[in-house]
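[job 0412] stage=complex_fold ligand=guanosine-5'-monophosphate status=START
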Amino acid sequence: MPRNHPHADEDCIFCKMVAGGIPCARIYEDKDILAFLDINPIAKGHTLVVPKDHFPTMLEFDPALGVPLFKALKRVAEAVRAEVKAGGFNVIQNNFTCAGQMVFHTHWHIIPRFENDGLPDWPGGRYADSSEMQQLAAGIAARI
Ligand code: 5GP
Ligand code: ZN
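[job 0412] stage=complex_fold status=DONE, emitting structure tokens
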């Protein structure tokens, strides 16, 4: 029987899927992780891999779950790629609204990719010079 997972958020749609209260096209499940098809796929086979516990963004995600998460990501991505005969796939993970996050239960997208599939490339920007780059790296490093 589905059960409420510890640390569930009663208003969260992915927590409801974990608990079995909302149906989803389930692909994989273990005690920590659930994977299911995205309802609005960028490409057919677009899959979401989510921890069963509720963490709003990746910053709250428990790194102790990193191993089960990565095991599931690899297994599911390989199966998706084979089933839809994709040449490759992107793994994308959005954090906060300005990065496109709509569901605040952290999740990893597996997006099948095909030659000339028309999906946009990320733009490649530039730094003014190497000192701007070095200073930025040092500023970030100082916060760790
Ligand atoms: P985000 O933009 O937060 O990274 O991604 C949220 C994803 O969840 C979107 O791609 C959206 O299509 C998917 N999604 C939202 N509601 C549902 C739902 O009820 N069922 C399924 N299967 N996917 C959903
Ligand atoms: Zn949740």
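The mean pLDDT is 95.
[job 0412] exit 0
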